[in-house]
Amino acid sequence: MATLDVIGSSAKFRALLEMVDLVAPVDSAVLIQGETGTGKEVIARAIHEASPRWKNRFVALNCAAIPSTLLESELFGYEKGAFTGAVAQTLGRFQAADRGTLFLDEIGDLPLELQPKLLRALQEKQFERLGGNHTLQVDVRVIAATNQDLGRMVREKKFRADLYYRLNVFPMILAPLRERRDDIALLAEHFVQKFARQQGKVIDTIPDDVMAALEHHDWPGNIRELQNIIERGVIITTGPVLSTQTTQGLTRLEAAPVRMPAVAEPASIKTLADAERAHITATLREANWVIGGPRGAAAQLGLPRTTLIARMQRLGIPSGTSRSRSGQPARFGRVMEGLSTHSRDNSGAALRVMEAVAG
Questions:
Q1: What are phi and psi of 182, to 5 degrees?
Q2: Under 8 Å between Cβ of 234 and 195
Q3: Least confident span in 126-140, 148-162, 311-325
Q4: Model confidence over 186-232: pLDDT tens digits?
Q5: 356: pLDDT strictly greater than 60
Q6: How many whole angstroms separate alpha carbon 44 and alpha carbon 16?
Q7: pLDDT per position as a tens digit, 267-306
Q8: How far apart are CA 96 and CA 86, in angstroms?
Q9: Are strands 30-33 and 170-173 parallel, antiparallel or unpaired?
Q10: Which of 77, 103, 168, 353 could bridge to 60 as Cys pair (CB 3.0-4.6 Å)?
Q11: Does residue 321 register a pLDDT over 50?
């Protein structure tokens, strides 16, 4: 069991943790969007650790770090003799993550020709190894992440629309550090103590001018950049006070943020009620608005049928028989009166305060 130290106290950070708590108990796909260095993999791990799958493996794969010619074999494995050098049968990441969670980072870099096979694995939970004809069945929860605008990539025919909608069941957008300035002091203190311990030093003070410089920097590299600045500062510090040279060279840089689109819903998600409504609606649509049965929305969400119906009524989600003639759910603006609770003790997750290190 992993212990995740996720640091933050800002309103945006607390809202993010509430969304983690909301989506962790169910097996639906999650798409985490945010600029580089905002902590996407840490949030993915937090979802895994707070889920019923926490006892099983969390397997991560960076789609941009592996040549496209090798990515299929990395994902799905290969049979002996499948290609030159394939001297033995090898498991892929999907099979390694069976009954656990597969995190696909930089999903926007997945080659178009491989996207149909990933879509099938997501929908049918089955695939064949490269060079094989035996169909394998797996039980894997997939969490994807990107710093690209997948919606725009879909419009430009650079990413399959069906795969995008399958991954985007529950979207989460991570705020850049410049929008979480209330968290900078906490993160800086955490990193100082972390690197001081690693280097066998005792540093108990951050000068006011150093903290002010940290809080006024625009952080185009987000938390990863802050972490690296603090690590360098600890290296050059010789006493109990963090060196004032830590922030030398920091300027008020203007970042060019990646614009993350809202989910393809009539209204953007602004509250947890909106997120839950969008999540349930997307699952209902995927199940052709069938609530009960082994392939119904209730089973996919891991909820009793009566509980799902009650939540739909509370959130103003119409049943399949009451949808508008266009087949699209009508708009509703009711505010959720309570957040679905999930005990981290039951999942065994050790989520304390989070260290949003780069992801």
A1: -65, -20
A2: yes
A3: 311-325
A4: 999 999 999 999 999 999 999 999 999 999 999 999 999 999 999 99
A5: no
A6: 12
A7: 455 566 777 778 888 888 777 778 877 777 877 877 777 7
A8: 18
A9: parallel
A10: 103
A11: no
Whole-angstrom distance, CA of residue 93 vs CA of residue 77: 7
Distance between CA 88 and CA 33 in Å, rounded? Answer: 37
Q: What is the 3-state secondary structure (H, E, C) of 248-281?
A: CCCCCCCCCCCCCCCCCCCCCCCCHHHHHHHHHH
> Which residue's structure tokens are 């300035």?
181
Two tokens at 134?
């035996």
Tokens describing residue 195: 């690197």
Tokens at residue 149, please? Answer: 């605008």
Contact between 129 and 78 (Cβ < 8 Å) = yes
Determine the residue type at 128: E
Other C-beta atoms closer than 10 Å to the C-beta of 340 total: 15
The model's pTM: 0.70
Tokens linked to 332: 């509703």
Task: Give the CA count within 13 Å in the CB-facing half-sphere of 286.
Answer: 26
pLDDT at 320: 55
Residue 355 near residue 42 (C-beta atoms within 8 A): yes
Return the pLDDT at 295: 75
Residue with tokens 């996720």: 6
